[in-house]
Amino acid sequence: MIDTAGVVLSGTNILFITLDSLRYDVARTAMREGLTPHLARLLPGGVWEHRQTPGTFTLPAHMAFFSGFLPKLPRPEQPPRLWECRPPAFKTVPPSTFVFDAPNLLDGLAQHGYRTVCVGGVTYFSRETPLGSVLPSLFQQDYWRPEFCSPEPDSTRHQVDCALAVANTNEGQPLFLFVNVSATHVPHGHYLGDSADSADSQQAALAYADSHLGRLISTLTRKAPWLIIMCADHGDAFGEDGYRGRGIAHRTVLNVPYAAWHAQPVTLSPHGRTQQQPGH
């Protein structure tokens, strides 16, 4: 169990990554077939948790996340939530949950001295339209460029470069760094030679993003501990039962991968090998 309240009060940095549109079955298969070796090394137990999203497309899913509602396990019993808006007086909240007296997580973290930064991916983070300004406006700093978006085949590299530069300029202040990875959002057929978008091309997109996500996490955790949350905001249907796309209550859209862990700084073993202290 992650004591998020303790994390926030201690000023531990927080990295929140959403892999846009990534289906659970695609992420699980990629892990099983060895296509995501960096994530296999980093995720607790080298596996994804199977969870279900509170929103079936980018906007409602992220609004729910930033309000305290992360993907839930597909069962009646649930672990304590990581964070939550201050509830009514009659409700009891577990002590490990960070309760923020604010309308959203970003404002709540800012009250505790955090710098909140968004590295956008899909156009809901682009500020190109009034609606595309809603999510980035929740942050103190936000970044988006066309090369961060899914039509760019090397989008994750550009996003990770930006995220690491931002982290370097914010040393000395607790950081909440959010990255919306766009590579797994359509279009991703170009990862299989301009094929039609499919579960296979989304898997290829995830395989592409794997090394860059490994670079992001390994670099950030080299000097300081981080709480890391990584999940999809929703999935995508590619013709199953006749459905295509998102914004629909279909299992391919509802079922998402999820992981959360503490990452400790890398240290040298007595034999000179690098070792990362285990998370919890």
At a glance:
The chain has eight helices and 13 strands. With 280 residues, the protein is α/β, with parallel strands linked by helices.
Summarize the amount of helix as a percent range: 25-40%
CATH class bucket: Alpha Beta
CATH superfamily: Alkaline Phosphatase, subunit A
**Integer average pLDDT:** 93
Description:
This protein starts with a helix and ends with a strand. The chain is of the alpha/beta class and 280 residues long. The strands form four sheets. The chain has a seven-stranded mixed beta sheet. It has a two-stranded parallel sheet with strand order 3-4. A two-stranded antiparallel ribbon has the order 9-10. The protein has helices at residues 4-10, 24-32, 37-42, 58-65, 105-111, 155-169, 199-220, 251-254; strands at residues 13-19, 49-52, 83-85, 98-100, 115-119, 141-143, 175-181, 226-231, 237-238, 244-245, 255-263, 266-268, 274-276. It has eight helices and 13 strands. Strand 12 (266-268) and strand 13 (274-276) form a beta hairpin. The chain is globular and about 50 Å long. It has a single domain (4-72, 104-276), classed as 3-Layer(aba) Sandwich (Alkaline Phosphatase, subunit A), CATH 3.40.720.
Keywords summarizing the entry:
280 residues, alpha/beta, Alkaline Phosphatase, subunit A, seven-stranded mixed β-sheet, 28% helix, globular, disordered C terminus
Helix-strand layout with pairing:
Layout: H1 4-10, E1 13-19, H2 24-32, H3 37-42, E2 49-52, H4 58-65, E3 83-85, E4 98-100, H5 105-111, E5 115-119, E6 141-143, H6 155-169, E7 175-181, H7 199-220, E8 226-231, E9 237-238, E10 244-245, H8 251-254, E11 255-263, E12 266-268, E13 274-276
Parallel strand pairs: 1-7, 1-8, 3-4, 5-6, 5-7
Antiparallel strand pairs: 2-11, 8-11, 9-10, 12-13
Helix pairs in contact: 2-7, 6-7
